[in-house]
Amino acid sequence: MIKRIMGALLPLVSFGLLSFAPFLYLMLTRKTGRDRTLFAVFTAASVVEIALIALVGRDTTEGLADFLVGVYIVVLAIVAAVMAFVELRPGKEAAAMPGRAYL
Asked: Which of 8, 31, 50, 57 could serve as a FRET partner for 86 with CA atoms 20 to 30 Å apart?
């Protein structure tokens, strides 16, 4: 349960910058195609967030672009936290690898 809560809190605490971290853990432990896809999606979303912050951070005026980047950051953090909480639920590991109980 602690692993599940910490995995969900990491994207929220880092404002989405570390939204890929719980999915990196899942990819390395479960090794399924879904986990690889989730890791790739959230890594790309984190890279886009960094690029948007760099682009918007250069101007001195506040406008619609700043607001939209802020909305993107909040949505990314919330979606990553919810997805991590769902994917790290107990019993998901056994369902992810059917027929591999002998390994």
From this structure: 50
Cα–Cα distance for residue pair 71/77, rounded to 1 Å: 10
User: Nearest-CA neighbor of 73 among 13, 8, 33?
Assistant: 13
- CA dist 44 and 46 (Å) reads 5
61 close to 35: Cβ distance less than 8 angstroms: no
pTM (predicted TM-score)? 0.79
- Using an 8 Å Cβ cutoff, are 16 and 80 in contact? yes
25 contact partners, CB below 8 Å, separation of at least 6: 7
